[in-house]
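To whoever is on call:

I kicked off a structure prediction for a single chain this morning and the downstream step that reads the tokens threw a length-mismatch warning. I double-checked the sequence; it's 326 residues and nothing unusual in it as far as I can see. Pasting both halves so you can look.
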Amino acid sequence: MARELPYIAAVQEAIFEEMGRDESVLFYGQDVAPSDDDNFVKAYGRDRVRVSPISETAEIGMAVGLALAGYRPVVELLMAEFMLVAMNQVVNEAPRLRYMSGGQVKVPLVLKAGYGFTAGWAGQHTGSIYGMFMGFPGLKIALPSTPADAKGLMTTAIRDDNPVCYLINYLLVLEHGDVPEGEHAVPFGEATVRRSGSDVTIVATGWTVGRALAAAQTLAGEGIQAEVVDPRTLNPLDTATILSSVEKTGRLVLVDQGTRHGGASAAIAAEVAEHGFGSLKAPIAQVTALDVTVPYSEPMEAFVLPNEEKIAGSVRQVLGEAPVAA
């Protein structure tokens, strides 16, 4: 049975339930359960729930060691940019060790971090930097866009024997939605079609899924039926579902909160160009953040980001129903 929960509560519920299911799951990080009255501490004690020092290098380095020792740590890192100070552990140690040991060791850890906090947080806390992690084999990337997927993907992340970057968009944390009670796991590498359509495929991730659905609703009033696909994970990436949709519609618009040359859309476009070129009736279009640091000013911030109007305009262009911008 499902009931309505905020996105962030669904994330926490998944961690709480997995800690009850598996004693090897640990939860620690900055600002995790600072009070002994916290439900996590009451249920699982300070041996498994800890506040860590303000050192991402230490937090992630400990997680790698704990994973090698048989634990399943979930590390609260708050902001995805904080991982940048520990990139050796994130991309050069954690994802490599299972392969380099010939599968003799497992590295099951979850790096939980927020991204895309475009709400006046200026340059260093607003990035959508998931694209830079896509090129590292062994490092999985989850970007839930709904409360139900927030729970289901966290459950799967904790159970996976590989390191997972579990990235939550801070613009979604208070959004509500139906979330299944009890055990709920969403498989990695399985995209979902959020809206069916026959005229154009829109592939969107995270916060931009809602923007794409809003644009699709507007376009439906004009007689344009847009299919909205949410990959849910970027590594593994479900190219089969995307290609199947493009085969049906013949047109593709990619929506990405990351920058044009730093997000996920360029990689998806390359896959479709190579494996689905014969299905395309028009060039692939990308609606992304502009290639600038996100500004502090709200009007400038809005100008930089994808929105419903930009998505709808791009769809009209690939359908030949709007003039191409000079």
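Update from on-call: the warning came from a stale cache, not from the record. Cleared it. Sanity check on the structure: The chain is about 35% helix and 20% strand.
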